[in-house]
Amino acid sequence: MAFVVLDRVRQGACLLAALTLLGACGDGKKAQGPQGPAVTVAHPIQKEIVESDEFTGRLAAVESVEVRARVSGYLDKVAFKAGQMVKKDDPLFVIDPRPFRIAADQASAQLASAKVKAATADRDLERARALLAGKNVSEQAFDLRLQAKQTAEADVKVAQANYDNARLNLEFTEVRAPVSGRVSRELVSIGNLVTGGATGSTLLTTIVSLDPIYFYFDADEASYLHYQRMAEEGTRPSSRDVPNPVTLGLMDEQGFPHQGHMDFVDNQFDPGTGTMRARAVFPNPTLILTPGQFARLSLPGSGKYLATLIPDEAVGSDQALRVVYVVGDDNKALARTVKLGPLVDGLRIVRSGLEPSDWIVVKGLQRVRAGATVSPQREGQGAEAKDSAHKP
Fold it and tell me: Is the pTM of this model over 0.90?
């Protein structure tokens, strides 16, 4: 019986020792305390940048021509394929040239006749001049010979002009491209009568040039005044004086891959819209840019300066305020109100509210509360901070 009691005492002692050890372990964990949610922190990036403003507008051809007939006649030939690229002076249409060739031949014959008459009148005048020297002809007769010669010379000029006009009309029967570019479809079919002349002439087709190409856009009054103030301060020259570089992007393109420059700023605001019309020009060797196409333009909106940049994911909201969480030496996250600017290369400009030495939360923002303790994992500066902020 004594052995049983002793065994139970030993078991109780072991159990007590185990509970004591377990309590000690629990007390150790309690002493360590919660460390807070894990977050990634990094310094803001300091970088020289130029801010950009974005505008929307339309592309337009540098040269746009309506091809019209200069002479009247029946259309005999269409010498191009609708929508193809043509070069200057390429043949496009042929109007039946036979009536104009006949008219040119007639004018040529009349010119030859006038020249013969002028030569005869010149010989008659020389004979009269010799007779007048010998007093064998009256001065009146000599004056008649002189008048005949002058009339014949005038007739030659008239005949020459008629011949030149007939030859020109014959050339106009072959309608050629006035500029290089892309031609539209033919608007008149073969066999139709087309009308030429300065007024009421028949429109045959159109041509638009493609390389280079214009981009027209409208800037609001606030933007215009901002650019004028920068020009006055010497921060950025006016686009009226300097071809400021610009970039352009189409609706299916990321960013602004096309490089160009400013070309024109209008001289007054449109009173109906309150905007200022401006124009940029872009090289278009691949012909991807097409007149009438919608596009986006990026225009320098500031001079070069040292900016503070952070990942856009590091910005939170506190009602109407924009905040960034800064982690101090005590590992507590404090909400810092910031004033933000536009995105540049995927990073958000911070105009005020941060210092370059601040450690800001760039990952795990959804787990942070103002004043709460966090477990920060520090990342490097610059590109490393940006890369870590964008890791999944």
Answer: no
User: Which residues, at least 6 apart from 386, have a Cβ–Cβ distance to it below 8 Å?
Assistant: 45, 311, 346, 347
Give the Cα-Cα-Cα angle 263, 240, 54 (nearest 5 degrees): 65
Structure tokens at 259: 């490089």
Structure confidence by residue, pLDDT tens digits, 175-218: 999 999 999 999 999 999 999 987 889 999 999 999 999 999 99
Write the single-letter amino acid at 204.
L
SS3 204: strand
Strands 38-42 and 375-378: parallel
**Cβ of 249: how many Cβ atoms within 10 Å?**
16
Say which residue the tokens 């040119």 belong to: 104
Residues 288-337 pLDDT 10s: 999 999 999 999 888 788 889 999 888 888 888 889 999 988 988 888 89
Q: What angle do CA 55, 58, 59 make, to 5 degrees?
A: 120
CA–CA distance, 157 with 170 (Å, rounded to integer):
20
Domains, in order of start, for the chain: 38-50+306-389 (2.40.420.20), 53-62+210-300 (2.40.30.170), 97-172 (1.10.287.470)
